[in-house]
């Protein structure tokens, strides 16, 4: 329940297999930007980057593209930005990815039962993050040490986080129409009329859409907001 309204939610789950340390985050839809944001959030949660990541084979072609192509646009991909090796589970081989499938089942029974209620996705994810941390104080299986104690050994082999995290968004080239609209995923976003017929770059994040106009194209046009180092216009819209 988000804001008192029941809705279907997608979850990004990452499990550190040696220690069973979990990470779960909720998203309104299963999209490229959610997949990328899940990586950024999970690595920040654990405080490091594993040497390799094994993915479920579901929709593997789309996942391979998202992992290696960096959101269908220019810029680093997750494995090039964080320098981990990507691997994909074999179809019909549950033993390849049994740990994360076990985490999905555990999260459903323990994190989502009864159905959680939150004012927003941020509040829901804060609750899921707290429950993931609380899980580290428990023991899994026949291990005498807690998940958190075993996670310490895992983190010794993790790589450090990069100085600048990956920008978790899908990037697309677009063009402003004669009516000052930019189309992205079947939705029209308005921009100042002075930018009509100009080429722009659309960045789709989980919770907003950012439209950028390359620098040097129209020096006489005032930017709607403070420009970044490589743009002369930035328009944002909540999703």
SSE inventory with pairings:
Elements: E1 10-16, E2 21-27, H1 32-46, E3 52-55, H2 60-69, H3 78-82, E4 85-88, H4 98-110, H5 121-135, H6 147-155, E5 170-175, E6 181-184, E7 187-190, E8 199-204, E9 208-214, E10 231-238
Parallel strand pairs: 3-4
Antiparallel strand pairs: 1-2, 5-8, 6-7, 8-9, 9-10
Q: Poorly predicted ranges (pLDDT <50, ≥5 residues)? A: 216-233
Question: CATH superfamily of the largest domain, called what?
Answer: Ribonuclease H-like superfamily/Ribonuclease H
Written as H for each helix and E for each strand, in order along the chain, the element string is EEHEHHEHHHEEEEEE
Number of domains: 2
Q: Give the biggest sheet.
A: 4 strands, antiparallel
CATH class descriptor name of the largest domain: Alpha Beta
Number of strands: 10
Oligomer: single chain
Number of H- or I-type helical stretches? 6
What would your notes on this structure say?
With 239 residues, the protein is an alpha+beta fold. It folds into two domains: 10-155, 2-Layer Sandwich (Nucleotidyltransferase, domain 5), CATH 3.30.420; 170-238, no CATH class. The protein is 28% helix and 24% strand. The protein has helices at residues 32-46, 60-69, 78-82, 98-110, 121-135, 147-155, and strands at 10-16, 21-27, 52-55, 85-88, 170-175, 181-184, 187-190, 199-204, 208-214, 231-238. It has a four-stranded antiparallel β-sheet with strand order 5-8-9-10, with no helix packed on it. The protein has a two-stranded antiparallel ribbon with strand order 1-2. The protein has a two-stranded parallel ribbon with strand order 3-4. The longest helix has 15 residues, at 32-46. It is globular. The two termini are 18 Å apart. Mean pLDDT is 79; it is low at 216-233.
């Amino acid at each position: 329940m988000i804001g008192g309204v029941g809705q279907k939610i997608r979850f990004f789950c990452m499990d550190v297999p040696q220690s069973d340390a979990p990470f779960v985050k909720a998203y309104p839809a299963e999209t490229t930007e959610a997949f990328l944001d899940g990586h950024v959030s999970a690595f920040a949660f654990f405080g490091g980057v594993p040497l390799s990541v094994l993915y479920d084979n579901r929709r593997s072609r789309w996942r391979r593209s998202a992992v290696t192509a960096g959101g269908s646009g220019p810029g680093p991909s997750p494995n090039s930005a964080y320098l981990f090796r990507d691997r994909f589970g074999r179809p019909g081989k549950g033993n390849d990815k049994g740990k994360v499938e076990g985490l999905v089942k555990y999260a459903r029974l323990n994190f989502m039962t009864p159905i959680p209620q939150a004012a927003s996705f941020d509040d829901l994810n804060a609750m899921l993050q707290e429950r993931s941390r609380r899980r580290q104080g428990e023991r899994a299986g026949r291990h005498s040490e807690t998940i958190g104690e075993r996670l310490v050994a895992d983190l010794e082999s993790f790589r450090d986080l990069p100085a600048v995290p990956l920008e978790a968004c899908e990037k697309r080239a677009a063009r402003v129409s004669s009516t000052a609209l930019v189309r992205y995923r079947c939705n029209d976003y308005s921009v100042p009329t002075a930018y009509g017929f100009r080429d722009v770059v659309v960045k789709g994040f989980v919770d907003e859409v950012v439209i950028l106009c390359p620098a040097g194209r129209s020096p006489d046009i005032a930017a709607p907001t403070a420009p970044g180092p490589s743009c002369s216009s930035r328009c944002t819209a909540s999703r």
